[in-house]
Amino acid sequence: MSTLSDLVFAQGIASEADVEWLHRVAGDGQLLADLSFADIVMWVPTSDDSFVAVAHTRPGGAATLFYRDIVGERIRPQWQAQVRDAFASAAIIDSSSPEWFEETPTRVRAVPIARKLDGAQTVMGVLTRHTNLGDVRAPSRQQITFNDCADDIFRMIATGDFPDLSAPTGPRRGAPRAADGLIRLDVDGIVTFASPNALSAFNRVGFADELEGESLAEVTSRILPASRDTDESLPVVVTGRAPWRTDIEARGVTVSLRAIPLRDHGNRTGAIVLCRDVTELRHQEQELLTKDATIREIHHRVKNNLQTVASLLRIQARRTKSEEARESLTQAMQRVAAIAVVHDTLSEGLSQNVDFDQVFDRVLRLVAEVAAAPNTLAHTHSIGKFGVLPSEYATPLALALTELVTNAVEHGLKGQEGKVEIIAERDEEKLLVRVRDSGSGLPEGTVGRGLGTQIVRTLIQGELSGSIDWRTLGSDGGGSDDIDGNRAGGQIATGTEVVIEIPLKWIKR
Fold first, then answer.
1. Which of 507, 238, 237 is nearest to 353 (CA)?
2. What is the torsion angle, in degrees rounded to the nearest 10, for the CA atoms of residue 89, residue 92, residue 98 and residue 100?
3. Is 436 strand, coil or helix?
4. What gap in Å lies between CA 407 and CA 405, rounded to an integer?
5. Is 74:57 a contact under the CB 8 Å cutoff?
6. 3-state DSSP: the chain helix, strand, coil percent, rounded to 5?
7. Are 157 and 25 in contact (CB under 8 A)?
8. CB count, 10 Å around CB of 465?
9. What is the side-by-side strand order in the sheet with 182-186?
10. For residue 351, what is the DSSP state?
């Protein structure tokens, strides 16, 4: 399904600023649908003098007329003249008589979507309100007030006064909706209507009387504890002077407030204040913050512990008199340090995936620093991209490559200067990694049987379900194939090459 931006830009008659404005209007589509007890559809003009639906919102407290999605559809003939008149005249146009939609009587209102630009109003689309007349009952006071609020907002949309550009646009968990609680204020901030849910929310924070006739600012000042620091935006929200959001907390209860100033041709006439008891949501957010801080502290301690173990192994390796023991301790230190690098990278974010190129760059620098033996000078070089891999791939692959690069430096290039290349190629099905050195090659073509080789086999075959193969490079520049099956030569003509192939078909994209 195309997005609002895609559908608007496809018509070729809108700017980036127009699309942003339409997005803001559509962002409050649910509020308009709930206040109107009707479906709200947004239309934009096409290049052939018609209109296409780019957004649709169904009401939360009434039956919808459109059981099938109409976004992307051309406007129906019975609405076209009304919508075209609203767009051309920049005025709200109501249907003169009930319209029938799939055997259901409806009433349609067309509202031009205007934006003020350099002192003038530009109409860029039309909202239609489709009210279902088949389920009409005697309207309650709340329904009448909700409809009046909707009419006020529709008039502001037609004059370019809504939405307000100073209003926060970022998502906020627990943002109140009309059904959660609605308070209507007059121009002086006096409550003229409070829905039952709004009254209940204020009862929970300690206000036991009726809200109507009271100054909402004075009510909130009485119920808030004097010792608690209040949000600096609270006064302008409870007086309805700015389109902001805030929370009030008292008696262990948190109520979220959102103010929508009402204007008539730029002059403030009152406000709508939406409210919702978000106590449980705020408790959950606090618990998540606490758990996140705990997890980060655990990650920090694990990283420090791994670094401490690596340091202890390094100290022990320096003090031991046995060359074999020193080599074993040094290799163990490298393995622990590689695990620490991967853990540190994974702990920086909550994603289940990791950019392995960043991980391997740190691992390669670590190996190059500690692997070189006396009279050995190794130049390591990485070619290609590993890409993003699942976190469970990172540690075994990093450890395996650490072992292979270490072996290439310590054994393949022992006592000489040479190169080690790590070549990564990837497609949708597999990851192919080649580790090459310019050393003397495998003795008689044999593969080592030491602990390092066993570790690499276990990691690649057991942990990653991949395959691994050792081979000696010839003077023809190597005998390996690339990921597409083509012969893949390299700068290194002789030495040893280890080829790793890891299937990626189980990675979720």
1. 507
2. 70
3. strand
4. 5
5. no
6. 40, 25, 35
7. yes
8. 11
9. 191-194, 182-186, 267-277, 253-264, 245-250
10. -
Q: d(Cα 371, Cα 413) in Å, to the nearest integer?
A: 11
Q: How far apart are CA 509 and CA 506, in angstroms?
A: 9
Residue 292 has pLDDT above 80, yes or no: no
At 254, which helix (H) or strand (E)? strand 253-264
- Rounded alpha-carbon distances, angstroms, from residue 200 to 55, 204, 239, 249: 33, 6, 20, 15
Residue recorded with tokens 């008689």? 444
- Written as six digits, the tokens of 377 are 């000078």
Kindly give, in sequence order, each residue whose CB lies less than 8 Å from that of residue 121, ignoring residues fewer than 6 positions away: 90, 114, 115, 159, 160
- 228: tokens are 């608690």
How far is C-alpha 45 from the chain's CA centre?
31
Residue in this structure with the two tokens 């109140």, named with its chain if needed = 176
Strands 120-132 and 191-194: unpaired
Residue range 67-87: average pLDDT? 94
Token output for 415: 């006592």
Least confident of 52-66, 269-283, 478-492: 478-492
Q: Please give the angle made by the CA atoms of 56, 270 and 206, to the nearest 5 degrees.
A: 95
pLDDT at 472 over 60: yes
Q: What is the DSSP letter of 352?
A: S
Instruction: Identify the residue with better confidence: 493 or 373.
Output: 493
Where do the H-state alpha helices sit in 320-385?
323-346, 356-371
Listed as own residue / partner, the contacts of 154-157 with beta carbons closer than 8 Å and 24 or more positions apart are 154/32, 154/92, 154/109, 154/111, 154/127, 154/129, 155/92, 155/264, 156/262, 156/263, 157/25, 157/111, 157/112, 157/113, 157/114, 157/127
| pLDDT of 356 over the 70 cut | yes
Amino acid 136: pLDDT: 67
CA 322, chain centre distance (Å): 54
